[in-house]
């Protein structure tokens, strides 16, 4: 069976990725990276940060490792918080409240356009990039948090097609449309053809 190390400290991501592989009938054993795992994400974009995490995990484990670097980019904030999404505030709830406060003066949905970017990179222990891809998932910053599924900024990310936030969609629904699922679709196709 294929084995891949997933270079993350985020258990929500592990759950989403595992569920996605299962729903696509893709057989792979996901190996955890020893914790605590907190490499300095000092890249200038999502792809660079996903490479930094994946290479660090590949060095530690001696196995091929992949990482996911995700961020929320808001149009009227010139793409912020973007690559700083994890550091935008300390706690998850504070991130949401801070962003809602920054968006307070924007009263129409049209002014609240945003997207999630999700970069996935697979690296071998020598540091060679085997696969890398970045997806984009469009939506809007909602006016208040809604829903209990998902994690991070999901409660304020409004998806027009469903008239719901990502946190009002269950794992299977989120996994059909999200930034992470778009990147994982490309990753699975590449793995099937090359791995
Ligand atoms: P790792 O780096 O260990 O994978 P992380 O949570 O720090 O975990 P990111 O740097 O990729 O991961 O995430 C940046 C921020 O974006 C972080 O605050 C997450 O909660 C949030 N985030 C990531 N994926 C998300 C998703 O699918 N929905 C909502 N928020 C998300």
How are the elements arranged and paired?
Layout: E1 3-6, H1 11-23, E2 29-32, H2 46-61, E3 65-74, H3 92-102, E4 113-123, E5 129-141, E6 157-159, E7 164-165, H4 171-177, H5 179-194
Parallel strand pairs: 1-2, 1-3
Antiparallel strand pairs: 3-4, 4-5, 5-6, 6-7
The chain binds inosine 5'-triphosphate (ITT).
Description:
Helices cover 32% and strands 24% of the residues. The chain is α/β, with parallel strands linked by helices. A 7-stranded mixed sheet has the order 2-1-3-4-5-6-7. Strand 6 (157-159) and strand 7 form a beta hairpin. Helix 1 crosses helix 5. The protein is globular and about 50 Å long. The termini are close together. The mean pLDDT is 97. The protein binds inosine 5'-triphosphate.
* Rg computed from alpha carbons, rounded to a whole number of angstroms: 17 Å
Secondary structure: number of strands: 7
Number of helices: 5
Shape: globular
Given the helix and strand composition, which structural class is it?
alpha/beta
Mean pLDDT: 97
Element order, helices and strands? EHEHEHEEEEHH
Key words describing this protein structure:
binds inosine 5'-triphosphate, 24% strand, seven-stranded mixed sheet, alpha/beta, 195 residues, 32% helix, single chain, globular
In short, what is this structure?
This protein is α/β, with parallel strands linked by helices and 195 residues long.
